Amino acid sequence: MSRAQTVLRRVVSDVEELGFRAHAVHVQVDDEQVVHRWSEDLARDVHSVAKGVCVLATGAACDAGLFDVDAPVARYLPDLATGGGASAVTTRHLLGMTSGIEMPWSPTWTTDVPDVAAAFLSRPALDRAFSYSSASTYTAMRALAAAVGDVHAWVGRRLFEPLGIDVPDWDRCPLGHVKAAEGLHLRSGELALLGQLLRDRGAWEGRPLVSPHWVDAMHSGWTVREAGPGYTHYALGGWGGPGPAWRLHGAHGQMLIFTGDAVVTVTADDHLGADRMAQRIVEAVGT
Predict the structure, then answer these.
(1) CB 12 within 8 A of CB 41
(2) Residue-level pLDDT at 128
(3) What are the tens digits of pLDDT across the range 150-173?
(4) Pick from 162, 183, 204: which residue ends a domain?
């Protein structure tokens, strides 16, 4: 039995032992890929995994010379008023959740105010403090759109089409912009392709879709905070942990978990069980 098969077999056993409500688990080790499904492979919202896609979209634009991640967001959104300190906030701050701007999430966050980016930037920026916010990623993609046009179309051309993924649905706000931080609908197999791209530091079939340093930035230069296990370290879209791993982690158990030469893709409907499942996955890969 190959290593990928061994890991999958243990993860499937753990899923069933824990009663974790998984849709699919996809394991890739080196070039071998194996998958186990509990339900039909439908396109589902990957939730905050989309934040990682936004980092890649930004990186591709910077690689092309179209965008500056370290320029003030106000350069790209000059018509939006900025609160105290917010005029110096950059897209890198927004993607890393270090703008210091607080804007709590709600189930209706894209319709609670007429313009989320305007509302977000009108708030004070508190000393680049960590503040995890969907509005932060959304505002970053509003800035990117000012440089590249529609972000959905940009990501389709630069990432999804080269990966062989039919351009997926991405929910939009009432103003017509992608929600960015959520609402991206992918099948588990498509999510696994994204995982392979990240594991291989932005390269696909021998050519870079994004420069390696953008992927590296998703799991280095951590912002460290006091929080529960798996939530103390955050970079550009990526969480540190469990253990030596790092991951993209969306609500209800949508995860890409990277450790060594392995990437494990999980789609699920089990928000509360996801952290424990991630720990089991890292243990399975490490044995």
Answers:
(1) no
(2) 79
(3) 999 999 999 999 999 999 999 999
(4) 183
Write down the pLDDT at residue 229. Answer: 92
Q: What is the pLDDT of residue 170?
A: 98
| Section 111-116 average pLDDT | 96
Shared domain for 116 and 207, answered yes or no, is no
Residue 72: beta bridge partners?
A: 90
Would you state the pLDDT for residue 72? 96
Tokens of 86: 């917010």
CB 120 within 8 A of CB 53: no
The percent of residues in the chain predicted with pLDDT above 70, rounded, is 100
Task: Give residue 57's domain range.
Answer: 48-183
Query: Looking at 183, 216, 250, which one is the last position of a domain?
Result: 183
> Mind giving me the DSSP string for 188-233?
HHHHHHHHHHHHTTTEETTEESS-HHHHHGGGSS-EE-S-STT-SE
Which residues, 6+ apart, have CB-to-CB distance to 202 below 8 Å? 56, 59, 208, 209, 210, 211, 212, 214, 215
Choose among 58, 54, 173: nearest CA to 108: 173
Which residue matches tokens 């701007």?
101
